[in-house]
UniProtKB/TrEMBL annotation:
<comment type="function">
    <text>Pyrophosphatase that catalyzes the hydrolysis of nucleoside triphosphates to their monophosphate derivatives, with a high preference for the non-canonical purine nucleotides XTP (xanthosine triphosphate), dITP (deoxyinosine triphosphate) and ITP. Seems to function as a house-cleaning enzyme that removes non-canonical purine nucleotides from the nucleotide pool, thus preventing their incorporation into DNA/RNA and avoiding chromosomal lesions.</text>
</comment>
<dbReference type="GO" id="GO:0000166">
    <property type="term" value="F:nucleotide binding"/>
</dbReference>
<dbReference type="GO" id="GO:0009146">
    <property type="term" value="P:purine nucleoside triphosphate catabolic process"/>
</dbReference>
<dbReference type="Pfam" id="PF01725">
    <property type="entry name" value="Ham1p_like"/>
</dbReference>
<comment type="similarity">
    <text>Belongs to the HAM1 NTPase family.</text>
</comment>
<feature type="binding site">
    <location>
        <position position="71"/>
    </location>
    <ligand>
        <name>substrate</name>
    </ligand>
</feature>
<dbReference type="GO" id="GO:0009117">
    <property type="term" value="P:nucleotide metabolic process"/>
</dbReference>
<keyword id="KW-0546">Nucleotide metabolism</keyword>
<feature type="binding site">
    <location>
        <position position="70"/>
    </location>
    <ligand>
        <name>Mg(2+)</name>
    </ligand>
</feature>
<dbReference type="GO" id="GO:0046872">
    <property type="term" value="F:metal ion binding"/>
</dbReference>
<dbReference type="GO" id="GO:0036220">
    <property type="term" value="F:ITP diphosphatase activity"/>
</dbReference>
<dbReference type="InterPro" id="IPR020922">
    <property type="entry name" value="dITP/XTP_pyrophosphatase"/>
</dbReference>
<comment type="subunit">
    <text>Homodimer.</text>
</comment>
<feature type="active site" description="Proton acceptor">
    <location>
        <position position="70"/>
    </location>
</feature>
<feature type="binding site">
    <location>
        <begin position="183"/>
        <end position="184"/>
    </location>
    <ligand>
        <name>substrate</name>
    </ligand>
</feature>
<dbReference type="GO" id="GO:0035870">
    <property type="term" value="F:dITP diphosphatase activity"/>
</dbReference>
<feature type="binding site">
    <location>
        <begin position="9"/>
        <end position="14"/>
    </location>
    <ligand>
        <name>substrate</name>
    </ligand>
</feature>
Length: 201
């Protein structure tokens, strides 16, 4: 019998990646949209708080265990912005084109060496809405911000995120490669270790 886990996200790009990344496990992972769960309010001041808020909200609405992802990009030249506000950087939540355009504009004329950035992904797994010990995992992916968009794969900031180890943007990588290298892949590997330590796998 496979256990159902709700994926506490309404982001289609993330949901696709999780489907691929989680296919090796014996869980049935269903996006919260299947249960008509709407976005939780992301009022936290850290990725960790927001991930817990989202996971708790999905547990509350469905009565099932849930996994949430709060992620974003930290740009050194902007002292860490957009960070936890990545999805709403240009104002409208989830407008990737506007977010990318604003980030390129803020970095106009900034030399390559000062364009360093990293993606963060924090995962929170909760067994139920009152779970006092959510499992938290965190992965990062180092790169820098390009001067213009490149590539059509992925989502969000992928077209303007340069991956030094591959010499191209993350939107130019086949999804299998992104899923080996990304902040999300690393966080998930950490989550799996925590599941193993708790004898959940
Ligand atoms: O691999 C990635 N490649 C490109 N961009 C990415 C990635 N991972 C996160 N990001 C960006 C997208 C969004 O601007 C923000 C996440 O915001 P975040 O609130 O966690 O997600 P969201 O509101 O889109 O969906 P939801 O909260 O329903 O999971 O960081
Ligand atoms: Mg969100």
């Amino acid at each position: 019998m496979s256990q159902t886990i709700v994926l506490a996200s309404n982001n289609a790009g993330k949901i696709k990646e999780f489907n691929a990344l989680l296919s090796q496990f014996n869980f049935e992972v269903k996006p919260q949209g299947d249960f008509r769960v709407e976005d939780a309010e992301e009022t936290g001041l850290t990725f960790v708080e927001n991930a817990i808020l989202k996971a708790r909200h999905a547990c509350e609405k469905t009565g099932l265990p849930s996994l949430a992802d709060d992620s974003g990009i930290e740009v050194d030249y902007l002292n860490g912005a957009p960070g936890i506000y990545s999805a709403r950087f240009a104002g409208e939540h989830g407008n990737n084109e506007a977010n990318n355009a604003l980030l390129l504009e803020k970095l106009a004329g900034v030399p390559e060496a000062e364009r360093t950035a990293r993606f963060h992904c924090v995962l929170a797994f909760m067994r139920h809405k009152d779970d006092p010990t959510p499992i938290i995992a965190h992965g990062t992916w180092e790169g820098r911000i390009l001067e213009s968009a490149e590539g059509v794969e992925g989502f969000g900031y992928d077209p303007i995120f340069y991956v030094p180890e591959k010499g191209c943007s993350s939107a130019s990588l086949p999804k299998e490669i992104k899923n080996q290298l990304s902040h999300r892949a690393k966080a998930l590997a950490q989550l799996v270790e925590a599941f193993q330590a708790r004898q959940m796998l």
